[in-house]
User: Fold this.
Amino acid sequence: MLKVTFISGILFGLAAVVSGAGLYPWIDHERLESQTQVVPNGGRSEVFFIRLPVDRIASLGTAGFGPGAAAFPAALALPDSLDDAQPMQIDHFKVRDIGGNVIGVASRHTVDLTDSAAVTWSLSFPSRGALWLVSQFDPAALDAALAAVGYQPGEAWEGELDLFVGDPQSLTGDIHGGTSEFSTLTGTFTERWQITGVGDSGELRGTIELDTTTYLTQ
Assistant:
């Protein structure tokens, strides 16, 4: 129950911040041109990037989520009631377009669901709105993939790892609309992690790529 309450508080808090930011004119944001491409059947494709570790704002999770769960900043800590028997992870990032421009922020919440984990993304873009994504994630997949290319926990590693996150039966997740520009959209996305190194304390280096395809809701 404490786990559910804690996670619900995070989600509702995030929603309040996003909603408030959209209503209150804090600053006049410059809107960069959207880097979208038209796809068959009237949809559009847009790819977003996160560079690790430079785009990481904050990360926090239980040890069950491997190297990516290392707390950042280090002073962050989960409540004692949330232990490794209840795996979860919370990440906040800056988001870039294909040109490398920072165009927004993203929150990624991962919660254990017994035999898999649910991953929810909320991408928030000034002057455009928020885009909501949902998929599945095997917490052991990243650990196993890193081990297969020579990474040892507690040691620095450099190399190349290309991993698509998602249900083994389907690597695509679902787009559940959002706010403003994205409120009438549905579609699918893929989440791709291209890792080039792991630091001594477990911080990841590389790129997260979110490749979205959206359509107007019928």
About this structure: Residues 2-23 form the longest helix (22 residues). The first strand starts at residue 36 and ends at 39. The radius of gyration is 17 Å.
